[in-house]
Amino acid sequence: MASVNAEIGVFGGSGFYSFVDDVEEVWVETPYGPPSDKVAVAEIGGRRVAFLPRHGRDHRYPPHKINYRANLWAMKELGVTRIFGPCAAGSLQPHVKPGEFVICDQFVHRTWGRQDTFFEGPVVTHISAADPYCPQMRATLIEQAKSLGLPVHERGTVVVVQGPRFSTRAESREFRSHGWEVINMTQYPEAYLARELGICYANISLITDYDVGLEDDPNIEPVSHQEVLRVFQANLSKLRELLIAAIRALPVEQACSCSQAAAAARG
To answer: Which is higher by pLDDT, 236 or 264?
Structure first.
């Protein structure tokens, strides 16, 4: 067990490499290898918060090379029971605009080759992922986003692609045809691994682009990494404000069943 403890965790995504000042940095060893970086622990509103940039502070790990299991295990070692997972994401629908937030309630994964479970035998364990995001944390995020006057969508499905490349037009058209709202490269297996460890998890998708553009608007270009970072940086202060408000407002008592996910999952 690490000597430093925290209650709430935050994973930083592309362009989000630090959270608050006056931190204590700690390196956490895990059975799954090294996490993406040192974990920065600070106090926010009387709550101990651990921050870890999922790509590393120098963005050395592309989405398909992140050691998700080590990152989640490091949070667990620090005593974290709830994790906010903000990320840069693309929009698949015209009504979900760049600069807006989506508090996702579902994911669809289109990745391959990622280490996506802690349960590799000999005891077989089947965890339900029917509702992968913590309802209590989602409700807190939605309430705080509204109170701050931030443009927020209260639900949405994120399709998680392998990366590091962006979608073809045909792929993006398929995703849109299903009615999915958001596209991202890191929500799987991060969100699911949290569930396996009994950690509450909530996503905040900050929309930075329209993926391959909009078919009825030729002036909107397909996404580029530079544009993702530009829009993300322009809205980073809003994301920080939302996270701090949600951390302060999150009830101490957990009113959800996330921590019990593994209780009846073994056969």
So the answer is: 236
